[in-house]
Write a structure and sequence with these properties.
Layout lengths: L1 E8 L12 E8 L6 E10 L3 H4 L6 E2 L4 E8 L9 E4 L6 E5 L14 E2 L17 H13 L7 E5 L6 H10 L3 E6 L2 H9 L4 E4 L5 H8 L4 E6 L3 H8 L2 E9 L20 H6 L3 E4 L9 H13 L7 E5 L4 H10 L5 E5 L1
Keywords: Acetylation, Cytoplasm, Fatty acid metabolism, Hydroxylation, Lipid metabolism, NADP, Oxidoreductase, Phosphoprotein, Prostaglandin metabolism
EC number: 1.3.1.48, 1.3.1.74
Enzyme class: oxidoreductase
Length: about 325
């Protein structure tokens, strides 16, 4: 018998998640049935969207992980196969290779590690994983960039935003990124952003006017809040906006959300097109994004930076770090 550990959310989040909202449960895994595999987790993902989903009922903390098959009763998954699943924060897990896991997302069916030709396995949680697909399809299909256009990205130093900015450069755009520290600003400019702005210290409206005197054509919104209102008011006629997150208010009480400048005048008078995008709608096309992004990384056109935490016991701290914006690039935990 294998003893496994998993994180369980035992309290509904009120404001910032607290350590006592989680508990680590230990339990024995049963023998494998036909079609099942036993996977030893090697890498776990920590993502902002984990904060959005909360419930008064207990649930296993979901999320992507990368692991290796250590026992199998599935011919297509021999021992040693690396797999990606959405079974969350656990050190061992039994997966039914014929089952579609969809407890919280339609992200369900496990899949074999993408072919990355020598790149780290952990990239399957980031640039060659769900965040990479979010950047690739959200930007290319819904912002529809054209060479010479000006693109603005918020949360630009994160797992998704940093990829969006680099893809925009590949497509011939001018790219401006907003991030929350001078260190992040320096890093963004080192990977090709034309301008990066520290929204915590700058006059954001003035800084954006200086960086984009001809206005903004495409806006990739990771954060929401007043910063997004500022950007929308500086967009050009028929500008395109894709919204994939609103991390600025994830930890706020829904009854006391921060008031922001109304968006409707900017949308109306600039004739903006705004599209909310959830990556699960592109699930069937993930391999397209993974193949192209892998090629871009291997050719040096994209830098896929990771923020690595070590230790199963440090997962909670890693999540809080992501919500605070401590990470540059994709946050992953090695166990």
């Amino acid at each position: 018998m294998v003893r496994a550990r998993k994180y369980v959310v035992v309290n509904e989040f009120k404001g910032w998640p607290k350590r006592e909202d989680f508990q680590i449960e230990e339990y024995e895994l049963p023998p494998l049935k036909d079609g099942e595999i036993l996977v030893k987790t090697q890498w776990l993902s920590v993502d902002p969207y984990m904060r959005i989903y909360s419930s008064p009922q207990k649930y296993d903390q979901f999320g992507y992980n990368v692991g290796e098959v250590v026992e199998t009763k599935a011919a297509d998954y021999p021992v040693g196969t690396k797999v990606v699943s959405h079974k969350g924060w656990c050190d061992y897990v039994i997966l039914d290779t014929n089952k579609f896991y969809d407890e919280f997302h339609p992200s369900g069916k496990i899949y074999k590690l993408p072919v990355m030709e020598g790149l780290p396995d952990s990239l399957a949680l980031g640039a060659v994983g769900m965040p990479g697909a979010t950047a690739y399809f959200g930007f290319l299909e819904h912002c529809r960039p054209k060479p010479g256009e000006t693109v603005v990205v918020t949360g630009a130093a994160g797992a998704v935003g940093s990829l969006v900015g680099q893809i925009a450069k590949i497509k011939g755009c001018k790219v401006i990124g907003f991030a929350g520290s001078d260190e992040k600003v320096k890093w963004l400019e080192s990977i090709g952003f034309d301008k990066a702005i520290n929204y915590k210290t700058a006059d954001t409206a003035a800084a954006l006017r200086a960086a984009a005197p001809q206005g903004v054509d495409c806006y990739y919104d990771n954060v929401g809040g007043e910063l997004s209102s500022t950007i929308l008011y500086q967009m050009n006629q028929y500008g395109r906006v894709v919204v994939i997150g609103f991390i600025s208010s994830y930890n706020e009480d829904s009854k006391n959300l921060t008031k922001v400048t109304p968006l409707q005048p900017a949308i109306l008078f600039h004739r903006l097109s705004i599209r909310g995008y959830v990556v699960w709608e592109s699930l069937d096309k993930f391999p397209e994004a993974f193949e192209q992004i892998t090629k871009w990384i291997q050719s040096g056109k994209i830098v896929a930076k990771e923020h690595v935490t070590e230790g199963f016991e440090n997962l909670f701290d890693a999540l809080i770090g992501v919500l605070r914006g401590d990470n540059i690039g994709k946050a992953v935990v090695k166990i």
